[in-house]
Amino acid sequence: MIVDCALYRDGSRTDDDSHWRELKAKATGDDDFVWIGLHDPTPEEMHDVAEAFGLHRLAVEDAGEPHQRPKLERFGEMVFLVIKTLWYVDAEDAVETGEIAMFVGKDFVVTVRHGQGNELHTARSALEHSRQVLDHGPGGVLYAVIDRVVDEYLDVTDELVIDVDEIETSVFSADRTNDSARIYVLKREIAEVRRAVLPLREPVARLASGDIAAVPEEATPFFRDVADHLARAAETVDSLDALLSTAFDAHLAQISVQQNDDMRKISAGAALIVVPTLIAGIYGMNFRHMPELDWSFGYPFALLLMAAAAGGLWVLFKRSGWL
Amino acid sequence: MIVDCALYRDGSRTDDDSHWRELKAKATGDDDFVWIGLHDPTPEEMHDVAEAFGLHRLAVEDAGEPHQRPKLERFGEMVFLVIKTLWYVDAEDAVETGEIAMFVGKDFVVTVRHGQGNELHTARSALEHSRQVLDHGPGGVLYAVIDRVVDEYLDVTDELVIDVDEIETSVFSADRTNDSARIYVLKREIAEVRRAVLPLREPVARLASGDIAAVPEEATPFFRDVADHLARAAETVDSLDALLSTAFDAHLAQISVQQNDDMRKISAGAALIVVPTLIAGIYGMNFRHMPELDWSFGYPFALLLMAAAAGGLWVLFKRSGWL
Amino acid sequence: MIVDCALYRDGSRTDDDSHWRELKAKATGDDDFVWIGLHDPTPEEMHDVAEAFGLHRLAVEDAGEPHQRPKLERFGEMVFLVIKTLWYVDAEDAVETGEIAMFVGKDFVVTVRHGQGNELHTARSALEHSRQVLDHGPGGVLYAVIDRVVDEYLDVTDELVIDVDEIETSVFSADRTNDSARIYVLKREIAEVRRAVLPLREPVARLASGDIAAVPEEATPFFRDVADHLARAAETVDSLDALLSTAFDAHLAQISVQQNDDMRKISAGAALIVVPTLIAGIYGMNFRHMPELDWSFGYPFALLLMAAAAGGLWVLFKRSGWL
Amino acid sequence: MIVDCALYRDGSRTDDDSHWRELKAKATGDDDFVWIGLHDPTPEEMHDVAEAFGLHRLAVEDAGEPHQRPKLERFGEMVFLVIKTLWYVDAEDAVETGEIAMFVGKDFVVTVRHGQGNELHTARSALEHSRQVLDHGPGGVLYAVIDRVVDEYLDVTDELVIDVDEIETSVFSADRTNDSARIYVLKREIAEVRRAVLPLREPVARLASGDIAAVPEEATPFFRDVADHLARAAETVDSLDALLSTAFDAHLAQISVQQNDDMRKISAGAALIVVPTLIAGIYGMNFRHMPELDWSFGYPFALLLMAAAAGGLWVLFKRSGWL
Amino acid sequence: MIVDCALYRDGSRTDDDSHWRELKAKATGDDDFVWIGLHDPTPEEMHDVAEAFGLHRLAVEDAGEPHQRPKLERFGEMVFLVIKTLWYVDAEDAVETGEIAMFVGKDFVVTVRHGQGNELHTARSALEHSRQVLDHGPGGVLYAVIDRVVDEYLDVTDELVIDVDEIETSVFSADRTNDSARIYVLKREIAEVRRAVLPLREPVARLASGDIAAVPEEATPFFRDVADHLARAAETVDSLDALLSTAFDAHLAQISVQQNDDMRKISAGAALIVVPTLIAGIYGMNFRHMPELDWSFGYPFALLLMAAAAGGLWVLFKRSGWL
């Protein structure tokens, strides 16, 4: 589906609502360019656009199917970029991923989006209000999209920081919590984020280095800024992963400590019953000469003895921390 | 065994069914080339072909025996490539490995296949229908074979992802499952895949860099695409390996938690018996003056007392989660 | 808030107390420069200064909001540096972080500080008394600030060494201590320090390499010295992190050993009661012919037997280390 | 001890049995060279040879004492190589190490061997029958020795693979095996192998790169082949090490699972005795009115009751998998 | 304190006992040089020497205070080296560290030593008897000192190997040993050694590369030899560290196995008492018709039955390995 299409001239969007083929034909000025936005395109749409703009077969294949790896590829003057989008779904405490493929030529930008999140509409609007970026032409669009996606990476890592904090609290709480499943799931989410962030560093570094024709020299600081944000996301993610591993070890230690505590509690409890049982056994013996048996208060005395023994043990165990 | 042999001219297969030596003699045109396919060749077959095409002694030795490492070697104009093939056997949930050795010269391709899987027949057919690739001559064949093998790597990693998901479900299920053997086996399979994937990255990168004569400049994007798929396989495999390690730790935690639960259940169960035993012991004492003993309903009273004690403990333990 | 502003001429501070705009206008001499210090500036202050000195939009954005990554960026002749400050709060055994952003031009230095710690006042005073550094102009100021911040890193790592020593003592003490929470928190602090130290290495290395215009050739040994201190901090932090992991494992081992000791103590204690219970059971049997039952001292004999059995077991267990 | 010495001319060994000094004097032709083989030489022998061939002091020191690190050193035209030899002693399931030092000059080869294994005699014989290698002169000898040693590395790693398989079987067998000592020993052997294999990669890579004068350009593919075998050995060793770590974790999990099983078995067994004891306790109570006590078949009834309780519990525990 | 000072001329020490300032003045010949040795110098001594030889302020600061990182710094023609010294204190099984700072100029060497160990006197004597090294002038002194220090690293690692062997024996012995503290301490020592060894590799590599003016081209093999020894120390240390980690895991496994053995022994022991208790309970029942009670030998029969039950269980448990 073609979700938006416009002709940009002199750093701002024209009102022209024509079909994208016509817009393409009109983009004859030096700084004119067309931006076509596709979302989950059919093979036919993909094919039409590819033919019209002379996109490379391999890039079109990659753009057509989701689950690609972030990468930057140059085909002559054209740049092809795949970037993964991330967003955090609060309801499920989960990270979802989508994908954007971009073809950036001298006078056109084609963006192909897969998955639900990260619609590019707001990025486009923001861009259309920032002449400074738009002046850079298709390279400016490239920057705007990457910048927005990477900013969302930082939002996601912020959410993950909160999740790790929650797990931390749970691990070290006095409650018996079984946190291993949560830690596992979070580690999995983090691996997902890492798969989006890490392979993107090399493409962004190349864009920042200035040897990609589509990015003018004066625009490289912007890409260095993105590279820096990316490095921040990568560092956060690595550091969270390491923290979770430590949290897991701490969780294991807590389980062991609790088991130890339980074992001692159980033993102390058992002693409270076993000792009176011994006393009962003693007065159940059949010796002919057992003076206590003939006492009038022998029975209450025995019960008291049992209670005293149990009570004494109770105090003892309480003091030594076993109960 | 020679499984297939053909002469290719002007980007398509000729019908000529002659012996490979004759085909070789006919491949005189600029773009002509012969493709001979061997499968588990005898030393004699290997020797004949090596002599006819002037293959290097070391490469022939490597091609003749299986269990080589993926590698790319140049001998003058000729390129020698060893690549490991992988396929997933559903029946056994296991990854099997084979091997293909390729000699690619100016006017010939010799492929030597070891092991069962990944026959090259379908790759050859597919190639014969794609003039675009075949036009690149022996370099195109090189691409077609590598591309097919690497695509199968991705199929295998997809299956491994499913296996890891199953293990995950099993680890976190309430059932008592002993997953360590399965995790171990899967880690072993993953190590196998890694041994095929990782050493291949350097050869493919060299093919993509354009300084291998057999690969024309305009064909390098195809090899970069393969390199990208390879990177994807490597990332998946690394990430699965890390996930399995975490799953293992989680499995250990589950075992500990279950042991703890069992211990508490056992203790609670023991209390249900030990307390009535104490009561029985008390009424088994031989004191002369024990009023209960003379009651008409002393015996049912004692039984009731025992049942009440056991019942009370039951409720108590249920509430505190010990039973 | 503008916390300090001065004009430096011929390697020393002038008395001129004018507004910073006037000072800027007066800095016309070859070695004259203005140093403006901001602390948690409002967007307006930031904007004014940025406009006056022609600071780059991206750098101003980064300087305006805290939680940036340490980095060095060149915009033409100007250098922009972000550096994290660390200090140790004794009361909480915690590491706090702040941030300093610096803009260093040919004739000006703008420092923007976020957070509480590491006020730059003392650094400035120290610098004003050291003509040797001040002679290097804005580059000297750059050095002075980095040097001071990195020296504080070393102070922080010294404190962390003490914390690790304390944990070590606690882990290997005979007391039952639950050190996992403390180890976790310290690992977290260390990760914080690492996030400040590690990304700073690359900027400092670039300053030491001599290809940053603001740093004259003869000043590079000073930056190499800072790089060396930074390396020391990084090595200490890595080594503490590894030690803490080992301490954690040792803590787990201690827990296991203690559980084992407890289990044996409990079992030995149980034997002391169960064996007399058996004896009591035997003399509670109802056989007609049990000679002991008719003895005059049968009862004391039975009690003695119980005591002897318990005493014998006690000695036995003490000797074998179970009690 | 000088174990062998010969003059090689025109690619084959001469019959000349003279003293090595004379052979050296006769090696005047362009392709003539002398090969002296020493085994655990005395300092005097070492000194004589060193002086005669002008070997560098440092290299002679290294060759004279064992336990060096694999390395390649150039002294002018001469090449000095230290290589570790490995062999597997079946009787002890252990890897033994030895050492070979080689001095390779324009017209001589001096090999110094330490330790028992890997005598060079068979390597020399094999070489003397392979004119192709011998034609390359001293460089060919260098290749022949390294090739043989590295082939033995692969034999050793094959044996280690078998050992790891055995451990695997043992870990996952139902038997109670204490595999930690075996895993530890094997990890130690693997570390030994790694210390031989890994540092050799750089010297072999340099020999394969063609910038060592003693190795003619056309011989570099042979060294690349050795480098490839070395890489294979290194990969195998790394992968075995990782597998052993996983096997260790699995072993720990097995221990935990077995402990859990034991605990449940013990508890179930205890229940089989404790419940009848309660019943016996009940019929041991002294109530005046207990109808069962007066039944003719009260006693057999009670015994049956006990047996039924125990039997019922048995079935219950069997079904739930506790026994 | 100035511990030694001498003028070296033509490759040997002169007898001149003058004050170092005079010796410095006399060192006018081409190959003349002065070597001043300081030990824990006062700031004044340091200052005097620094001024006389024109040493750089930063280097003097670093030389004056201990606990620096190993490093090599060039100030014009002068080379400044910091190196950590290590020695093993047998009495405490501990590694101690000291420090040597060296200033090496065209015609002087200043060595500053901190800490107890590694006095340089014997190194100086050895050097004075080896014209070959001394001929290289100050560069030869540099080599002699580094060589000696690195040789002592190897002595220390040899001692650590012995310590690890002892721990190994202890871990796998049948005794109940708590080795975690010893392993921890040894890991800490190893970390200390690593902090001395690893950062020194880069300075030594630079000295071996031949682009440090103070080291003549023909002296580089000597530094390559040192680099090789350093690599050996680093490899040993890494390998010991990995072995200790494995030993720790094995130690944990031993603890678990012992706990399991204990648990089974305890349970078997409990059974030996609980079963006779049940029998006693049975004969303590009050049924009117219990034929055994009236037997003349009923009581001995019951005792025998108990003994037989306990004995039978004993045999059973012995056979199954529980006792």
TrEMBL record, chains A, B, C, D, E:
Record bears the keyword Cell membrane: yes
InterPro entries, per database record: CorA_cytoplasmic_dom, CorA_TM1_TM2, Mg/Co-transport_prot_CorA, MgTranspt_CorA/ZnTranspt_ZntB
Superkingdom in the source lineage: Bacteria
CDD domains named among the record's database cross-references: MtCorA-like
Keyword DNA damage assigned: no
Keywords: Cell membrane, Ion transport, Magnesium, Membrane, Transmembrane, Transmembrane helix, Transport
Ranges that cross the membrane: 266-285, 297-317
Subcellular location: Cell membrane; Membrane
Pfam families, per the entry: CorA
Membrane topology designation: Multi-pass membrane protein
Role noted for this protein: Mediates influx of magnesium ions.
Family statement drawn from the similarity comment of this UniProt entry: Belongs to the CorA metal ion transporter (MIT) (TC 1.A.35) family.
Protein name, UniProt field: Magnesium transport protein CorA
Source organism of this protein record: Nocardioides hankookensis
Lineage: Bacteria, Bacillati, Actinomycetota, Actinomycetes, Propionibacteriales
